[in-house]
Amino acid sequence: MDILEDLNPQQRQAVTTGGGPILVLAGPGSGKTRVLTRRVAYLIGVIGVRPWNIMAVTFTNKAAREMARRVQSLLGERATQGIMLGTFHAICARILRREAERLPIDANYVIFDADDQVSLVKAIIRDLNLDDKTYRPRSVHTAISRAKNDLLTPEDFPVQTYRDEVVRRVYEEYQRRLVTSNAVDFDDLLLYTARLLEEDSAVRQKYAQRFEHILVDEFQDTNQAQYALIRQLASVHRNVFCVGDEDQSIYRWRGADYRNIRRLESDFPDIQVILLEQNYRSRQVILDTAMAVIDRASHRRRKRLFSDRGRGENVFYYEAVDDYAEATFVVDTIANLVAGGQVEPRECAVMYRTNAQSRLLEEAFLAARLPYRLVGAQRFYGRREVKDLIAFLRLVHNPGDEVSLTRVINVPPRGIGRKTLLALYTTARQTGLSPGAVLLDLARGSASPFWESFTGRAVASLADFGAMLSAWRASATTLTLPELFDRIIADTSYRSYIDDDTEEGKDRWANVQELRRLTQEYADRTLEEFLQDVALISDQDTLSEEANAPVLLTLHAAKGLEFDVVFIVGLDDGLLPHSRSFDDPEAMEEERRLFYVGITRARDRLYLVRALRRGGHGYYEETIPSRFLDDIPDDLLDGTSRARVMSRSRDAWGSFPDKKPAPVTEARFRAGMRVNHPLWGEGIVLNSHLEDGDETVDVVFESVGIKRLVAGIARLTILP
Question: Which fold has domain 381-536?
Answer without folding.
Answer: PCRA; domain 4 (1.10.486)
